[in-house]
Amino acid sequence: MESIQADRLVKAYGKVRALDELSFGVPTGTVFGLLGPNGAGKSTAVKILTTLSRPDGGNARVAGIDVRKNPDQVRAAIGCVTQKISVDPQATGRENLLLHGALYGMSRRQLRLRAGELMARFDLAEAADRQARTYSGGMQRKLDVAMGLIHRPRVLFLDEPTTGLDPEARAAMWTEIARLAAEEGLTILLTTHYLEEADKLAGALAIVDRGKVVTTGSPDELKSQLRGDAIVAELVDSQGIPQAEEALRRVHGAREITTAGRVLRARVDDGAAAVPAVLAALDAAGVKVGAITVARPSLDDVYLRHTGRTFEEVAA
Ligand SMILES: Nc1ncnc2c1ncn2[C@@H]1O[C@H](COP(=O)(O)OP(=O)(O)OP(=O)(O)O)[C@@H](O)[C@H]1O
């Protein structure tokens, strides 16, 4: 069964087509990642699925409910953690949870129990009665997620949940998110522009580019569709790029050759075996190489394959 179905969603802002027939489905109880660089359309999709915005075309169902026809019912069934933290810094952690829960018409007794449970679960019990402004960034983000869960939603939307967190807090958040899906059967839609985050957390993901889903599958499925290794040569300066590209074209088995700045990439069947031939070809062309690396296919390669651009290039 699918808890989220987006069917050819279209949204235009003036001339910008933020969503251009975006479609995907999320099986119940899984973590699904919408991965794409800034401006790809992820937030716009989340706004429509959480009923904050209406699509210009297409349709969507969340927890089996039509977002256009029954937005109130959708809102009751979902939790939503947006990019802007909704924690009130002057209130304590517990007060934040109680205030948020009151919006859903929960009884005081229900609320107290649930708030206690969530604070324990997110390791905030000791800090529960301190003002949230005294919390670290990671603690505030956990509180934010706890607030999104107060009314026991069936589907949770997390819009860039770890942006701005340090590596340790990010890892802690990943553990929590994975547990929520595995232990509580929650369906989670996560948007991210971190390749590593999508790779680690998402059972399946959709790569979004310019308002469209360019490919979808589990991280492993997507990576295994790319045969061979990536070989990446960083030149000492960018002037030699045209000659280097030309030289690489003549190396047996090198394909999908792309350049960005002074970095040259190609795909080969066996990376380690191809390195000597690549270095010899570049040397013969008079090109100075600063570094050369071989890598197993990554989601960045998947992105490159489907959009013709590297993720970093677009993010920059
Ligand atoms: N309210 C708006 N008015 C005009 N244009 C908008 C509006 N919201 C989004 N856009 C445009 O729509 C496109 C998609 O934006 P969106 O915020 O959905 O991307 P995103 O992938 O979520 O990126 P980010 O990670 O930066 O939020 C962008 O070109 C953006 O500039």
From TrEMBL:
The keyword Cell inner membrane does not apply. It comes from the Bacteria. Residues 4-235 form the ABC transporter domain. It is found in: Cell membrane. GO terms for biological process: daunorubicin transport; doxorubicin transport. Its main location: membrane. GO terms for cellular component: plasma membrane. It holds the Pfam family ABC_tran. Keywords: ATP-binding, Nucleotide-binding, Transport. PROSITE patterns: ABC_TRANSPORTER_1 (PS00211), ABC_TRANSPORTER_2 (PS50893). One of its GO terms (molecular function) is ATP hydrolysis activity. InterPro entries: AAA+_ATPase, ABC_transporter-like_ATP-bd, ABC_transporter-like_CS, DrrA, DrrA1/2-like_C, P-loop_NTPase. It is a peripheral membrane protein. Belongs to the ABC transporter superfamily. Drug exporter-1 (DrugE1) (TC 3.A.1.105) family. PANTHER family: ABC TRANSPORTER, LINEARMYCIN RESISTANCE ATP-BINDING PROTEIN LNRL. This is ABC-2 type transport system ATP-binding protein. It comes from Streptosporangium subroseum.
